[in-house]
Amino acid sequence: MHLKQQQLDDLAAEIVEKNISKELAQQATQLVMGDGNADANMVFIGEAPGKSEDEQGKPFVGAAGRFLNEMLEAAQLKRSDVYITNIVKYRPPNNRDPLPEEKRVFWPYLMRQLEIIDPAVVITLGRHSGAAFIPDLVISRDHGRARTVQYHSHEFMVIPLYHPAAALYNGGMRQVLIDDFLAACELARLQERS
Predict the structure, then answer these.
(1) What sections of 118-163 are H helices per DSSP?
(2) pTM score
(3) What angle, rounded to 10 degrees, do the helices at 63-74 and 173-193 form?
(4) How large is the angle between the packed helices 3-17 and 100-117, nearest 10 degrees?
């Protein structure tokens, strides 16, 4: 097995073993660690798994995930080219927003995930995951704008995007999200070459 994938599997096992966010873990079907290429140049980060994700054990497999797949296709990418995860690794009950404490306890694990994968670009999907990296984020103003974020000794280029679900609720957002998405993928390709 690929070393990075093994490290990610070990990290997932550690979350389960240490019973991180016990209340969430108890009501969820399973841990949703992430999916895709452990060597990816781009990592997409949502906020938390929903019902479909909880059932299948993979992030972004519901309606928002289908739109994400469409956008990947438009950028000539497949899910197997990128890595997709969430800040919180268990589904909150009734798809409520994760609580600040839930995000806080999972944050170090997300950072370790990113350190293992070591992507050129981190693309946050939605206001909540974007604000975790960019505290002063205003998604309507900052969507699509790359920022460099420092975490310990690691530096990440972070590009906040609207959540794919936003385009499902508001058709006018669809093109904005596609345009931002394609630009972010192009930036990631440029990072890879440099």
Answers:
(1) 127-133, 139-142
(2) 0.95
(3) 50
(4) 160
